[in-house]
Amino acid sequence: MAEVRYDAATQTNPAERSAGPPPLLTLEGISKRFPGVEALTAVDFDLEAGEVHVLFGENGAGKSTLISIIAGVERPTSGRYLIKGKPISLHSVQDARQQGISAVFQEFSLVPQLTVEENLFLGAELTSGGFLDKRLLHKKAEEIIDRLNFPLKPQQRVAYLSRAEQQMVEIAKAFRSEPSVLIFDEPTASLTERETERLFTLIEQAKTAGVGIIYITHRMGEIKRIADRITVLRDGHKIGTVDVADATEEKLVELMTGRVIDQIFPDIDYTPGETLLSVDGLSLGKGLLRNVSINVRAGEVVGIAGLIGSGKSEIGRACFGLEDIEAGRIMFEGADVTGQSVKQMLRHGLFYIPSDRREEGLLMVRGARENIALPSLDRPEFSSQLFLKRRSERDRTRQLAERVELRPMNLERDLDHFSGGNQQKVLIAKALTRNVKLFIFDEPTVGVDVGTRVAIYGFIKELCEAGAGVLLISSDLPEILHLTNRAYVMYRGELRTELKGEEITQDSVLSHFFEKEAA
Amino acid sequence: MTEDREAPRVSRGIKGWLQLGFVRLGVLPFLLVVCLIVFSFMSDNFLTGRNLMNVLRQSSYLVMVTMGQMLALLTGGFDLSVGTILAVTSVVGALAMSTAFAAMPDMAWLAIVLGILAGFGAGVSIGIVNGIGVSVFNISPFMMTLGMASVGFGVALSLTGGVPVYGMPDAFGSIFGFGRWFGIPAPIFVAGGLLGVMYVLLNWTRLGRYLYAIGGNLKASRLSGINTRLHLFTAYVLCGALATIAGLMLTARLETGEANIGSSMPLESIAACVIAGVSLRGGVGRVGNVVLGAVFIGLVQNGMNLARIDSYLQTVVIGVLLILAVGADQIRQRLIAELQD
Known about the structure:
The structure holds two protein chains of two kinds.
Chain A: H1 2-10, E1 25-34, E2 37-47, E3 52-56, H2 63-70, E4 78-83, E5 86-87, H3 93-98, E6 101-104, H4 116-120, E7 127-128, E8 131-132, H5 134-148, H6 163-174, E9 181-185, H7 193-208, E10 212-216, H8 220-226, E11 229-234, E12 237-243, H9 249-257, E13 275-284, E14 292-297, E15 301-305, H10 312-319, E16 325-332, E17 335-336, H11 342-348, E18 350-353, H12 357-361, H13 368-373, H14 390-403, H15 420-431, E19 438-442, H16 450-465, E20 469-473, H17 477-483, E21 486-491, E22 494-500, H18 506-511
Parallel strand pairs in A: 3-10, 3-11, 6-9, 9-10, 15-20, 15-21, 18-19, 19-20
Antiparallel strand pairs in A: 1-2, 1-4, 4-5, 7-8, 11-12, 13-14, 13-16, 16-17, 21-22
Helix pairs in contact in A: 15-16
Chain B: H1 2-10, H2 14-25, H3 28-42, H4 49-74, H5 82-103, H6 108-135, H7 141-160, H8 170-177, E1 180-181, E2 184-185, H9 186-204, H10 206-216, H11 218-223, H12 228-254, H13 265-275, H14 287-306, H15 311-340
Antiparallel strand pairs in B: 1-2
Helix pairs in contact in B: 3-14, 4-9, 4-12, 4-13, 4-14, 5-6, 5-7, 5-12, 6-7, 6-12, 8-12, 9-10, 10-12, 13-14, 13-15
C-alpha cells in the first residue's frame, strides 16, 4: 500500500511540470555501473532553487555515488544530467565548480600542513603578476570567515584544528565562491549543537538566496529542521520522494529499510548489581580531565554526555589504559587497576569500543575473521601456546558475525569493502570474543544508518540484561535520554552533574552542556 | 531488477575475465606468463629443466632476503639495510672463519661453526639496532634502515679494506654453496625450509597475525591489547636474521667474504614483494606470492643473460618492472574499489 503511494509521488517528473522554470538540476534515469556491480539503477532526481533536498538511505544505498556524480567526481554509465534544463556532461570537480556546484564531502579535502586561508583558496589562488597575492588572499579569507561567523583564524595550520574546526574550513570552502548548488554529506557528524545551529542558519540564508542544497543525513531531527523534500534510496534504486510534511520517522525508516521498525530505542530492564568500575578523582595532563569520579555497576547503562572536547571520551580511554594518568585511582571489581595496560584491562574484563572505527577500531585491509579475533588471540579458543587454532577461530568468528548479522556474510573480504554500518558490527563483534563484564561504547552510532543503529541498541540491551555493565559515551542526546538509567554530564574536563532515572531529560542534560551563565 | 544485474555478467568477454583475474590475482601471474613466452622465443635453452633449476638456485638467496623484507613491509615499514646485512655477515663470517682455520688447520668444522656464529651475530645485530630505532625511538623505518645501511657498509669495507676475504675451509663452500642435500641444491633446500617456517609463522602463530594487524592499523592493534613495540622490534630482527642466512649461504657459494655482495638486494627484494602484491602501506601480502615474486626476478635476469642482454641494461629492466608493477597495483586498487562500491 505504501509502495503505491510513494510511486505516485515519484511520478512528478520534470516533463509534467514543464510550466514553471526548469529545476536547477535534473537527473534522468541515471545509472552507474562498476564492473560487476550496479551502484545506481535508473535514478531520477531533481533539485529546485531555494530548497533543501535530503538524500536518505542506508549505507551502501547509493547516496554517495549519486552525489559523486552530481559533483563531477564520477561519470554516470547512462542517463541524462541537466543543469537548468540544459544537458551537460561534467568531467571533473573543477567542471562542476564552474557550474556553481560545490560539495562538502565527509572525507575532508584539506591539506593539513597548510593554513586555513591557504586551504580555502587551494586551486583558486589569487595572483598578481604571476606571484601569489598573499595580502589579498588573507583579506578575502577573513571576509569569508567573518561572513560565516566561524571561530577560525586564517593563519592557523589545519593540522592543529579539531575535527569540528576542519569541518568548518571545509564548509567555508564551499561558500568561497557564489555557489548555486551546495552538497553536504553528513556535515554535522562532528559539529557541536551550537556549530550545527550556525550551519543551519547559513543554509537558511543560502536558501533564500536561491541556492539549491542537497543534504545527506541520518538524523531525523535535522530532516525536520531544514528539509523541504526527501528522496529515499535503497540498493541503488530510488524508492520515492516525499515532502517533509508527509514524512514521519517510522515512514522514512520503513521506506529506507523496506521493513517496519516499530521502535528505535528498546526498553531495557535495569537490575543494577555490584559496582564494577569506580573512578576516583581522576585527572589527566593538560587539564583534559580534572578530578572526575564516576562509577558503573553491573546490569546498568550509564551515560556520559557532553560536548566535543568535554573530556567524556578521555574517561573511557583512561579506564582502558590509553591515557597517562596524572592523579586519581581507577578500581575494577574492587582491585586497583590504575595505569594498567590495555592487555591487562582486557583480561580483567573491560572492553573499550572506540568512536573512530577507521582510525582506531579496525584493520580496514583485512577481513572480518581476523578483525574479530584480534583482541582475543591469547584466549584458548583461538590459540594454543604456539599456534593459532584456525578452525576454531573460523567457527567462533562466524558465530559472532551471525550474531551481529554481518552483511554480506563474508568473513574474508576486506573491511574496506563493507558498508559503514557493517564495519561497526564487526567492531562490536570484536568485543564479544571475550568474557567482558564492562563495555565502554564511545559514540557507537556515529555515521551508521537507522537499521544498524537499532541493531546496536539491541545489543546494548542484550548485554545489559545479561548482567554486563555498559558505559555509553555519546554526543547524541536521544541516545543518552532513552538508553541510560544514570548519566553523567561533562563540561571542559570536569564532571558537571550526575542525573538519575527521571531526572534525565533533554533540558536537564542540555542545561549542563554550556557555561553556567549561558544556561 | 534481477535481469539488470545479470546483464553485465553475461556480457563479460575475454577482457572482463582478464580484468577479474587481474583483480583477484594481481599483476604477477600476467608478468610470469609474458616473461616465459618472451624468453622462450629469445633462447632455446630457457625452458629446459636444467635451466629452470638453475634459476631456482640463483634466486634462492633473493627469496630469503625477500621473505625478510616482507616482514618489514607487512608492519608498514621497510628495510633498506638488507644489502648491508648481507655484506657485514659475509665479511665478518669469512674473517672469523679464515682466522680460526688459520689458527687451527685441523679443526675445519670448528672454524666453520665459529664463522657462521660470528656472521650471524654481526648480521642480526644490525636487525636489532633497526628494531630498537623503529619501535622504541619511533624513527621512521626509511631513515633508520638507510642510516644503518651506510653504517654497515662502512664497517664491512673498513674491516676488509675493500679486498675479498679468502682462506675459508673448502668444506664450507662445498657443502653450503655447491652441495646437494637429499638431491636438492643446498640454497634451494634452505630457502624451501625457511619458506615453510615463514608460512607457519605468518599464518599459524599469533606473532604472524599481529604483524599483519600492526601494519593494518597500529592504533587498532594497540587497542586490541597487542604489544606493538615488541612485535615491530621482532619484525626487524627476523628480517635481519633472514638476510643474514642469505649472506652466509652466498658467502659459501662465492667462497670469499665480500663487502659488496648485497648491493642490489634492497631494490630487488622490495621489487619482488611489491610485484607479489605486498602493500607498501602494510598489512597485506602472502608469503607464497612473495617467493614467486623473487623467483620471477631471477627468471627475468636469467632470461636476459641467455638472450645476451647487457648487464647494465638489466638493471634498467628491473627498475622499469618495479615501476610498472606499482602502477598496475594502483589500477588494481581502483578496480577493486569500483567492483565493491
